[in-house]
Structures are given as C-alpha cells and as structure tokens.
Amino acid sequence: MQMKDEKEQVALFMGRSYERGLTTSTGGNFSMRVGSVMLITPSGLDKSSLKAEDIAEVDIETGKNLTPDKKLSIETEMHRLTYKKRPDCISVMHSHPTFCCLYSASNESIDTTLIAESWYLLDRVVKIPYALMGTKELAERVSDYAGRGGNAFLLENHGALCIGKSPLNAFDRLECLEQAAKLSALSHLVKTDGIGEKERNRIADMR
Predict the structure, then answer these.
(1) Predicted model pTM
(2) Residue 31, H or E segment
(3) What is the C-alpha separation between 172 and 46, in angstroms, rounded?
(4) Which among 6, 57, 75, 178 is annotated as catalytic?
(5) Catalytic: which of 120, 130, 140, 156?
(6) Which DSSP helix (H) or strand (E) runs through 205?
(7) Residue 1: pLDDT above 80?
(8) Domain architecture of the chain: domains with CATH
(9) Confidence band (pLDDT; 50, 70, 90) for 2?
(10) 120 assigned to active site
(11) Residue 165: phi, psi to the nearest 5?
C-alpha cells in the first residue's frame, strides 16, 4: 500500500517530537491507524529525519510486517494491541520525555489540574506498572490499561504514551503531558492551587 500522505504525517510528528525534546535520536515511536493497517516508525533510524518511505506497515489483526524491508520498532505490539482495544484511537505516541520519565520512576503523580489545558486534553494520568520494554508482557499490560479508558499514560520506569483521534491529537497530548509534569515538579517550589471540582466538570463537558 502507498498511503504517502499518512506516512508523511507519521514521519512529521516523530520529527517534531525530537525537535521539542520529547525523545532521543533513536528513541520513541509514533503510529497511525489507516483502516486495517498500522503505520509505525521503524527501529534504529534517526527520528529527526524520517521520511515517508521509512515508515513501516503492519497488519493490525495479525501483526504481520507488510514491509519486510523495514525493521519494526520493538514496541510494535504495544501499539498494535492498543488499537485493537481502543477502536476510537487513530494515533499512538510513545516516548521518553525528561519530566514524564521522572514521574514514571516516582510514587508522586502528575497534577493535571494546575491549568485548564492539561485537564481538558489529559484528564487524569494513568500509571501502568513496570514491564520490560519491547516484551509481550508490556504490550499486553499497556493495551489492557488503555482498554479501560484514559488517553495519557505513564509506563513505570520507562516513559510516556498518549493516544489520540488524529496524529496531531496524540502529539498534542504527549507534549501537554510533559508540560504538566514540569509544572507538577515546579509546584514544589511555588505554592499552587489546582482547578476545583466544579470547574473541572465544566471543562470536561467541553471535550
């Protein structure tokens, strides 16, 4: 399959994540559902300079690599199983932003009530217990938690994952999640007050 425009979007948002400091040169992965096919960034390539022709194709139902010349990301199953559990999901972004990783290794939680945007985009952040990266155990654990609801997740001692109804929506959520993590850390230095329940409900009604 061609899907050049969709592949360009996947490459674009992976590149933007590197530019925004949300991932390292070869870290993280971004995917997009197109019908029964998942487009996903490959393993081992510089994430700042991906092009449409670098993006791999995977059958969502079977997991078959439809582009055998591309080396799949080790987290391909995590993305694929998430799509199977969440039919509303069009894109998945996983990376290792600094402050999200800090909270992934902490018993403290990211406070998404500090500003309206983070509550609107993220609601509560779900913490997923540790499993070794690239394993079937991690893929099944993440997809299981995603299937219960939520759009923003911390993978314990690993990183962050956000899902969205479009590539932009998934990217926006992950960028917002990192901002919320920074604000949460800084709130230990400056006294803050989160948005109250009544106002949070009004914001939630706008989603």
Answers:
(1) 0.95
(2) strand 29-34
(3) 21
(4) 75
(5) 120
(6) none
(7) no
(8) 4-204 (3.40.225.10)
(9) confident
(10) yes
(11) -85, 0
* Distance in angstroms (rounded) separating the CA atoms of residues 50 and 41: 8
Hunting for tokens 């609601």 — which residue is that? 123
Report helix, strand or coil for 105. coil
Contact at 8 Å (CB) between 139 and 81? yes
Q: What letters, b where the CB count within 10 A reaches 16 and e where it falls short, cover 156-193?
A: eebbbbbbbeebebbbbbbbbbbbbbbbbbeeeeeeee
Name residues whose C-beta falls within 8 Å of residue 145's C-beta, 6 or more positions apart in sequence: 126, 128, 153
Tokens matching residue 145: 């938690």
Q: 103 CB contacts (<8 Å, ≥6 apart)?
A: 109, 110, 154, 181, 184, 185
Residue 145 known to be catalytic: no
Hunting for tokens 């960028």 — which residue is that? 175
Paired tokens of 91: 């894109």
CA angle 49, 53, 56 (to 5 degrees): 100
CA distance 158 to 101: 6
